[in-house]
Write a structure and sequence with these properties.
Blueprint (H helix, E strand, L loop, with lengths): L6 H11 L4 E3 L2 E7 L3 H17 L5 E5 L2 E6 L9 H14 L20
Antiparallel strand pairs: 1-2, 2-4, 3-4
Helix pairs in contact: 2-3
Length: 114
Amino acid sequence: MEAKIEEKEVAGWLEENLPTWELRADQLYRRFDTANWRVTLMAANAIGFLSEAAYHHPRLILNYRSVEVYLTTHDAGGVTQRDFELALKIEETVRWPRKEGDRPGSRPREWLRR
């Protein structure tokens, strides 16, 4: 079993590596505001795929224009290195930039709002 990381260390790590995430009740938390329901579902599916690949299962809350992610390692009773690793991969994947010229003849569409 992985060791739980103390709250102070978690806060410092988030500030340095994932400032858009926060610690809430021994869980890493992030809300992704999306452009619409279609993007919400795509983001949730991407997070689900990454989570299964990592043998880790976050709590997801889906709304029309947002996905909320909660990560914790239940066996450890809080945040572990596994949660950090998955949070980084989720951030990298969901925030993957779309920019003008990605597809010839197209203009970029709003993807995530934040």
